[in-house]
């Protein structure tokens, strides 16, 4: 079978632009023996756009909407319509070029709207996503604690504490108590040793004369420095 005139040594001539290009630069076509079409990819895309515009005009009587030209290193946000640098778009590994579709203000606004529509607010979304409970369960646990922080007993607890190994919620604490447990790695042994350490080294008042006290350590240590 003679070789087609537009094929030559693994190359093909595009029937639109006339350029000789490698076969991998042509669009796939299962009806041809080599699996490649007659038009290079850029020409094929131009033909597809022209065909789509023609069908749209014939069937709906309107023209294809022309998007404004976007400079290099920029992107157009489809929500606000502004053209901004890529740094104004959030990072997204699955997005085109590693950036999200919407600019950061529009991205944040859409996120808040979705959380409000699906979960009733950002707090409910945060509790559900991170701890698996909602505001209702939070208030029930707070009532069981008497409305105060589970460790220090202070008012207005806000931080939900959970076991990092099992994910189970343990109680509602303040920021300092919650962070303290994390610093001690939730280890009862470390916490017990810390209590023993404090009891043995904390400076206490000792009565040395009626009405006269002296700060001293029951075991070891040195007196606090004096400021002049």
TrEMBL record:
Residues annotated as transmembrane: none
Protein name: Recombination endonuclease VII
Species for this entry: Micromonospora saelicesensis
């Amino acid at each position: 079978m003679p070789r087609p005139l537009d094929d030559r040594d693994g190359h093909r001539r595009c029937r639109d632009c006339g350029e000789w290009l490698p076969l991998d630069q042509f669009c796939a076509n299962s009806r041809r023996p080599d699996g490649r079409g007659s038009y290079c990819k850029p020409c094929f895309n131009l033909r597809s756009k022209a065909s789509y515009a023609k069908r749209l005009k014939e069937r709906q009587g309107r023209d294809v909407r022309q998007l404004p030209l976007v400079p290099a290193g920029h992107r157009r946000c489809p929500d606000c319509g502004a053209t901004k640098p890529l740094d104004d778009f959030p990072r997204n590994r699955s997005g085109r070029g590693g950036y999200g579709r919407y600019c950061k203000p529009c991205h944040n606004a859409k996120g808040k709207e979705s959380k409000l529509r699906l979960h009733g607010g950002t707090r409910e979304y945060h509790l559900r996503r991170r701890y698996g409970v909602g505001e209702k369960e939070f208030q029930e646990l707070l009532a069981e604690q008497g409305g105060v922080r589970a460790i220090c007993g202070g008012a207005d607890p806000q931080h939900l504490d959970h076991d990092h190994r099992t994910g189970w919620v343990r109680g509602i604490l303040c920021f300092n108590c919650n962070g303290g447990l994390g610093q001690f790695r939730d280890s009862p042994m470390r916490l017990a040793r810390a209590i023993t350490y404090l009891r043995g080294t904390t400076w206490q008042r000792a009565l040395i004369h009626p009405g006269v006290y002296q700060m001293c350590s029951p075991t070891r240590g040195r007196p606090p420095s004096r400021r002049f």
